[in-house]
Amino acid sequence: MSTFWIRLLQLILSLTILVVFHEFGHFLFSRLFGVRVEKFYAFFNPNFSLLRIKKVDGKVRVRFFAPNVPDSYEEEKSYGADGKEVVTYKPIDVETLPEGDWRRDPDNTEFGVGWVPFGGYCKIAGMIDESMDVAQMQQKPKPWEFRTKKAWQRLLIMVGGVMFNLIQAFLIYSIVLYTWGDSYIPAQGLKHGMEFNEYAQSLGFRNGDIITACDGKPTVQFDADMYRDIAAAKQVTVMRDGREVTLDMPEELSLFDFTRETAFVSILSPMTIDSLVADGGAAAAGLLPGDTILYVNGQQASTWNSFLNILDDMRTRAADSYVSRDLTLVTSRPGYGLDTLTVTADQKFMLGIVHYSDEYAPVLLDYGILSSIPAGIKYGWNTLKSYVGDFRYVFTKEGAKSLGGFGTIGQIFPEKWNWHAFWLMTAFLAIILAFMNILPIPALDGGYVLFLLIEVITGRKPGDKFLERANTVGMAILLLLVIYANLNDILRLF
User: Fold this and answer.
1) pLDDT of 42-79, one tens digit each?
2) Among 242, 388, 412, 421, which is least packed by CB within 10 angstroms?
3) Nearest to residue 429, comparing CAs of 116, 165, 176?
C-alpha cells in the first residue's frame, strides 16, 4: 500500500475517533437533561446513509444504503398581501403515520454511518447548529428541546464535547505510557554538546555548547519544550569549555526562528558510520563501519546534521536541474588517516549509510497501571499548555503562511502504520480539537458558550434569529479558514 493511502487511512480513522467521542459528550449531557437527540452519525450523510439504526415501535430497525427520511416537517408555500411567497413549516403528526414508519417515535435517536468519510455530527432538537434546521425553530418551543432548558444545563451540553476530547486525550496518553512507556534525551548529558545553525551562532551560541538553563530554569530534556524555553527566555546559560556563559536573547525571537532551513539547535553527533547497506553506494566505494565523513563535495559534513543538510540540498536542486550523483567524500579511518573517494548516490541521493550514536542513549521511563494515569494527565496538560502558548503565532505573518489543511494533518502521520505514533498523534489532535472548539466563534461550541455566558450575566437570552445569523457568519468564517488552509497545502506542492 502506498504512503498516501496509509496516511489517508490513519487520518480518517483518527478524525472519526475524535469526532465521535466529541459528539458523544454532547449526546450524553443532552440525554442527561432530557433533551431529544434526533441523530447521531459517524461521517456525513447527504441524500443517503450507509447504515441507519433506530428503534421504531419497540423494534430495532437497521437499514443499509438507505435514503434519508425527510424531516418531521412539511413545507407549505403561500402568498402574502404583497404578493410575495411565504414559506412555513407544518409539523408532521407522527401518530398518524403508518406503523413502522421511520419518522415515528421521534424521541428515539437515529444512529448511523454516512458515506462522506470525515467527521460526524449530533443533531440536538431545538438548537441552531450546522444543520440550519429553521423549520424546527419556527415551531413553539417544546419541553424536550435544547432551547427550553436552563442556561447552566445548556452550558454543560455545549462544553460536553470539549470535556470529552480532553478526557479522551488524557486517557490515550495514559494508555500509551502504560503500553510503551516514555523516553527522553538528557539535555545536559550530551558528550559532544549541541550543534547550532548560523542564526543561532549569530546570537552567540557555539557548536559544542550545552544549554543548561533558560532564565535560571534548569534544562532537563532535549525536546520541543526546550525550544519554547529558549524562545521565551531573556537569557540562556550554556556550558562552554568547562565554564558557564550567559547569552542575552533578542526580544523578537520566536519559534519560527527555530524552523529555518536547518534546526536552531540539534544534538552534535560526529558523522561516524555505524553500518552500511550491502548494495549501497558507500559500501561499493569501500567505506567501512567506524569511518568518519569530514567533507562532501568540499562542504564540511563532519556532523550527522550537516551531512543530511547537504544531501537535502542536493535533492532540492535536483528537482529543478541536473545534479551529479557522484559525490566526493573526504573521510577519516582510525589508524589510516584521511582518504578521498567517490561515492555514487541513488536516485534519492541516499548513500546506504546507517548512523546512530549510543552516546546519547535516552532515559527510559516505565509506568504501571496506577502511575500511568496521573502521568498521562500531566502529559496531556503540558501538551495543552504548549499548544495554547504556541497559538499566538497563528496571528503573525509567518503563522498565517504556515496554516495547513487536511494535507498538512495527514503528513504528520507516519509513512508506515505505527500504532504508537498513531495514538500519540490522535491524542494531540484531541487536544487541538478541544481547544479550537472552545474558541468564541459562532458555529463552534465556544460561540454558544459565549452567548450563554452573556445570557447568564445579563439575564437576557439572544433571539433565535440572531443565533441563526451568527451561526451563518461563523460557518462562513470557518469555511474561509478551511479553504485558506487547504490552499496553503496546494501552494506548497508547487
Assistant:
1) 999 988 999 999 999 889 999 999 988 776 777 777 77
2) 242
3) 165
